[in-house]
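Example 3.2
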Amino acid sequence: MRLSAGAPHPLGATWDGAGVNFALFSENATGAELCLFDGPGSPNGGERRVALRERTDQVFHAYLPDVLPGQLYGFRVNGPYEPANGQRFN
């Protein structure tokens, strides 16, 4: 899958006519992955993960030129698990 740095704004998933920019804000995360899902009944489990290696200020971001509108996605976010401090990453 092709990937480039993308931009830290706007937040969320933004289609520009040629691909999708993904941007996720987290003040305390230590890492983030973009999870791309195929539709129901996919023969191979249907999940691909892309590490969001670029970070500008507190925003993880990447641009995927091969992604189209309607792509199912989610984020997996890593960070400290310190409930006493309000941190519940896992």
